[in-house]
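Table 4 source record.
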Amino acid sequence: MAQRLLAVTDRSRVELQRRLERRGYAPETAIAAVDRLEARGWVDDNRLAEDLARRRLSHGYGRRRVVADLVSRGVDAETVNRTAAALGEGQADAVRIAADRLRRGHSGLLTDPEVRRLAAALQRRGFEMSDIRAVLRQMATEIASLPPDEG
C-alpha cells in the first residue's frame, strides 16, 4: 500500500504518515510503515527537499516559495533551513529569468502599472523584494538606453 503512495512522486515522512492515517491505519502502524520505508531509502526528506528546490527554481520560483512548499509538506525545520541556505541569498539571475518570461512579447518601456504587476507576480513566486527591485531597475535602465525605433 505505501509503495503505491510513493509511485507518482516523493512524499515527506509527514505527508506519507498522514495519507496512511487517512486511509484508516492506526498512527502507530503508519509511523512504523514510514520508518521501514525510510530505512530502505524510499522516503528521504533531504532528497525530497533538494528535488523540490531544483524543480521550483527551474520553473521560475524563488527561495521563499521553496521554503513555503517544504513547510507545507511537513519537512522538518532543519532540512528546510539547510535547503534555504543552499539556495543562497541573492537570486537576481532567477528573478531576471522569471521577469523576462512574464514579460514575453513586451519589449517597450516598463510603465508604472507593468512594474507593479511584475513586482507582485515575482513576489507571489517567492522572490525577495530587494532582488525584485534591483532587477526591475536594471531592466528599466536597459530598455531606456535602447535606440528609438525607426520607421
